[in-house]
């Protein structure tokens, strides 16, 4: 089955208590695209996924698959595969029977089913595990079985709700890259919900950042990071330093700890820059403050510098020099790395 585009058109979903989980949401997901849905708890990520799945019906608006209105179709008639955080495998069936379940329901002949199961076990790196009981598998292995089961019937759309959240950090990272590989191999349209920005950036062709049931921004990971639409998105993707603007100077603006380059005629209330764009310098830089701490992270260190603002500045430095807490640190920034944002 070839991949399918998905369109949400003015979708709204409120619950009985009046909570508006999804508020007039319109977006289009290309055929074969992987869309990550990211946002704070309660912003409507899971509800959006459930609207696409057919597990919820919108109060208003339409859901279209390849241009066809599927709004009133239940999940079993939408041709979607789903993977949940908690595996949701059948505990009384072995691995092969779990994977083959959807195929059996669709009355695929046994020999063909077995062939497809073997192919899927190989795809998820579990060759020879067909006869294992579910309780004999690790968390990561269970999640691979859940994936294999979801894609076994070759669905048009794969939906994943925090698929890696239950795994420990190391395993999550490994399975993340395996999942990315798998999604590319399957060339399936995939939508996954996560609250992990690293996961969203690594797996999503585009990321939908949601805020209170609406789109805060829908863009590629790179565009979200480099051109965040507003402060909410910028704070959600990566770390952001905020400088309250205190007034104009000859070449820029006055901020806590010094002066930032700023040539635009409008004078925003806050200016921003990313931690990797602040450079520690021995010459007088733009701002100066006292080191609160230095955290070694391997290829670079994260420095926290107090310039007297509301929050200490975060600075990423690949310079190996060790500073001591309390040291005075000079920081410089290239003018084009300083930006303002809509509130
Ligand atoms: N069945 C329901 N009945 C009432 N309110 C609900 C129901 N399901 C979700 N909500 C509410 O709708 C809003 C959106 O919920 P949703 O689960 O979509 O958010 P989420 O972004 O996935 O959150 P999380 O990251 O915490 O899982 C929340 O305020 C939630 O409490």
Automatic annotation (TrEMBL):
InterPro entries cross-referenced by the UniProt entry: AAA+_ATPase, ABC_SmlMolc_Importer, ABC_transporter-like_ATP-bd, ABC_transporter-like_CS, Mo/tungstate-bd_C_term_dom, P-loop_NTPase, Transp-assoc_OB_typ2
One GO biological process term: quaternary ammonium group transport
Keyword ATP-binding: yes
Gene Ontology CC: one annotated term: ATP-binding cassette (ABC) transporter complex
Molecular functions (GO terms): ATP binding; ATP hydrolysis activity; transmembrane transporter activity
Superkingdom of origin: Bacteria
Domain ABC transporter: 6-237
Keywords: ATP-binding, Nucleotide-binding, Transport
Pfam families found in the cross-reference section: ABC_tran, TOBE_2
Name listed for the protein in its UniProt record: Putative spermidine/putrescine transport system ATP-binding protein
Taxonomic lineage from the root: Bacteria, Pseudomonadati, Pseudomonadota, Gammaproteobacteria, Pseudomonadales
């Amino acid at each position: 089955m070839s991949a399918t585009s998905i369109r949400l058109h003015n979708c709204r979903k409120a619950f009985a208590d009046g909570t508006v989980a999804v508020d007039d949401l319109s977006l289009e997901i290309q055929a074969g695209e992987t869309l990550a849905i990211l946002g704070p708890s309660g912003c409507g990520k899971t509800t959006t996924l459930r609207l696409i799945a057919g597990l919820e019906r919108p109060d208003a608006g339409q859901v279209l698959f390849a241009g066809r209105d599927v709004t009133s179709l239940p999940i079993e008639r939408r041709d979607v595969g789903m993977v949940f955080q908690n595996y949701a495998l059948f505990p009384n069936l072995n691995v092969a029977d779990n994977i083959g379940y959807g195929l059996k329901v669709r009355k695929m002949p046994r020999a063909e089913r077995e062939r497809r199961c073997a192919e899927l076990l190989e795809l998820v790196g579990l060759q020879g595990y067909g006869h294992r009981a579910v309780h004999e598998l690790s968390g990561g292995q269970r999640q691979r079985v859940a994936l294999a089961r979801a894609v076994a019937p070759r669905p048009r759309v794969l939906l994943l709700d925090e698929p890696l959240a239950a795994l420990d950090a190391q395993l999550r990272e490994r399975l993340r890259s395996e999942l990315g590989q798998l999604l590319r191999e399957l060339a399936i349209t995939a939508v996954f919900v996560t609250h992990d920005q690293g996961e969203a950036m690594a797996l999503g062709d585009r990321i939908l950042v949601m805020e209170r049931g609406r789109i805060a921004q829908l863009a590629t990971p790179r565009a979200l990071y480099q051109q965040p639409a507003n402060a909410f998105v910028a704070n959600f993707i990566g770390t952001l330093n905020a400088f309250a603007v205190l007034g104009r100077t000859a070449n820029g603006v006055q901020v806590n700890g010094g002066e930032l380059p700023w040539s635009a005629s409008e004078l925003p209330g806050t200016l921003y820059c990313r931690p990797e764009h602040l450079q520690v310098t021995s010459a007088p830089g733009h701002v100066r403050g006292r080191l609160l701490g230095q955290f070694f992270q391997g290829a670079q260190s994260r420095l926290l510098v107090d310039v007297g603002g509301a929050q200490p500045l975060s600075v990423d430095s690949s310079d190996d020099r060790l500073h001591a807490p309390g040291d005075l640190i000079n920081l410089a920034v290239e003018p084009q790395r300083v930006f303002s944002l809509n509130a």
